[in-house]
Amino acid sequence: MSSDAPDRLDAGACQDPLLDVSGVVAGYGATEVLHDVSLCVGEGEVVSLVGRNGAGKTTTLRSVVGNVTPSAGTVSFRGEDVTGLSAEETVRKGVAFVPEERRVFPGLTVEENLRVGHLGGGATDDRPDPDEVLEEFENLREHPDRLGGALSGGEQQMLAIGRALVAGADLLLLDEPTEGLAPFVVRRVEELVADLNDGGISVLLVEQNVEVALELADRHYVLDRGEIVYHGTSDQLRDDEDVMDRHLGITK
User: 35 and 60 in contact (C-beta within 8 Å)?
Assistant: First the structure.
């Protein structure tokens, strides 16, 4: 697949997509950050969005979840246009966003953080109970009464993901989930994301650590200066030395 051809994937790569982002233009005030961004996530997929700092990766996630309203283009989830919905409305549709800064409530306990997430989730009976989610996170399970502000970075990341799960997420948007974490914690996060995907949750992953993205994701979009410049599988991306060097700063 040529890096000079940033066209959308063949229809067969994402038939009946869970998430379909088409021609999105978005930014902040008069500053346009995204220029005609198109990508899709199929049911049960892990898809990564990688690129250098400032490429527009976080803005893409914010445009999907409703924190940023595109000035052009559409965002569809399960075939429904959700472009104009607020973040709260998008969460109720089954899309959850775990931002880079995690945003756990520091003055609430682990259990209270999860219960707040449960209250703000989607209107479905299929949402897991906070106690069920807590069982999936060993470190958190052992300290349900510990304040969010007293948790380590890795534990806060786990709690932020757990809070997304109790909201009833079918699609999880993860922004730099391994940023600033020790290598052994990074591996735990990788295992968690893989387990969640095995359980049926689709993931759109923004990750500065390209090796983590290559390990976790089925397909990859490379974003550069607000434009999709490449898409392909892990094997294709690994083998494309030009893209790895020019757009990701990785030289073999």
Answer: no
Length of the chain in residues, anyone?
252
Q: Which long-range contacts (CB under 8 A, 24 or more apart) does 76-83 make?
A: 76/17, 76/19, 76/20, 76/21, 76/22, 77/18, 77/19, 77/20, 77/171, 78/18, 79/16
* Highest mean pLDDT of the ranges 123-132, 175-184, 226-235: 226-235
Locate 71 and state its tokens: 């000035």
Q: Using an 8 Å Cβ cutoff, are 252 and 243 in contact?
A: no
CATH number belonging to domain 1-93+208-252: 3.40.50.300
Quick check: 194 and 175 in contact, CB under 8 A? Answer: no
Query: What are 222's strand-pairing partners?
Result: 50, 230
Indicate the domain borders of the chain.
1-93+208-252
Residue 62 near residue 72 (C-beta atoms within 8 A)? no
What is the per-residue pLDDT for 231? Answer: 94
- Supply 152's token pair: 């380590």
Scan for tokens 């067969």, then name that residue: 12
10 three-state secondary structure:
coil
Q: Are 131 and 169 in contact (CB under 8 A)?
A: no
pLDDT tens digits, one per residue of 181-214: 888 888 988 988 998 899 899 999 999 899 999 9
Task: Write down the pTM of the prediction.
Answer: 0.88
Task: Tell me the three state secondary structure of residue 47.
Answer: strand
